Amino acid sequence: MKILIVSATENEILPTKNHFKSNDKDICIQKYTVVKNLSVDFLVTGIGGVLTSYALTKSLAEKKYNWVINAGIAGSFSKNLEIGDTVLVNIDQFADLGIEDKDDFYTMFEKGFGDKNKFPFKNAKLENPNEINIDLKRVEAITVNRTHGNIWSIELFKNKFKADIETMEGAAFFYVCLIEKTKFLQLRSISNYIEERNEANWDIPIAIKNLNDKLSEIIGIISKKNL
User: Fold this and answer.
1) Distance separating alpha carbons of residues 68 and 42, to the nearest angstrom
2) Which side of the chain, N or C, has fewer Cβ within a 10 Å radius?
3) Exposed/middle/buried for residue 47 (C-beta within 10 Å: 0-12, 13-18, 19+)
4) Separation of first and last alpha carbons in the chain
5) What are the CA-CA distances from residue 11 to residues 8, 14, 179 (Å)?
């Protein structure tokens, strides 16, 4: 069983990286326990869709994995999610790739640039067909090149896309995995609400802790059940 953990920054997955060590014999050392036939690799891509797309495509060309897991923190549009909640993203989309027209914003698909139902897109969205039996909320995300921090842009994107969370890499990760026909999951923990930027209201440490707790749990489920 070969698993690749993908994150934009090392800090987001460092607890899990310190928890696991892998070698070329497909044996994973979890703390002091040797788990045979399990290899866990880590890929830190850098922030954003372009860096994620290149690094992940290159990694998948060099080595085949049973599962690829994108793990990171995220901002939430929804107050139904609490700071520190960990969620699985089952739908994502490229949100700010488009055209401004005065006070309006249109995606490339809305302007007729591309077929919104051509694989891997379904109605302009990217859907994850893979599932895992774990007690986590399933959410819809948008992927952006800049996180939102003023009222006007927050309301525009919140009302237009009706997503639960936003990240800067998720849709790129979905796109590569779907094209490469690789089983994948996107795991995110909420560090902040999407509002006028006020980092005093953020809690990155609890988001990272909860993210890595669930990430280790998911790795355990995949390896034990040989999914």
Assistant:
1) 10
2) C
3) middle
4) 9
5) 9, 5, 28
pLDDT digits (tens, 9 = 90+) for 121-180: 999 999 999 999 999 999 999 999 999 999 999 999 999 999 999 999 999 999 999 999
- Model-level pTM? 0.92
Q: What are the residues whose beta carbons fall under 8 Å from the beta carbon of 5, sequence distance 6 or more?
A: 13, 16, 17, 40, 41, 42, 43, 69, 71, 215
Q: With beta carbons less than 8 A apart as the criterion, state whether 168 and 191 touch.
A: no
CA atoms within 13 A on the CB side of 131: 5
Report the length, in residues, of the chain. 227
Q: From the DSSP assignment, how many helices (H) and strands (E) are in the chain?
A: 5, 14
* Region class of 197: left (phi > 0), else alpha (psi between -120 and 50), else beta: beta
The answer to whether 172 and 151 have CB atoms below 8 angstroms apart is no
Domains and CATH numbers, the chain: 2-225 (3.40.50.1580)
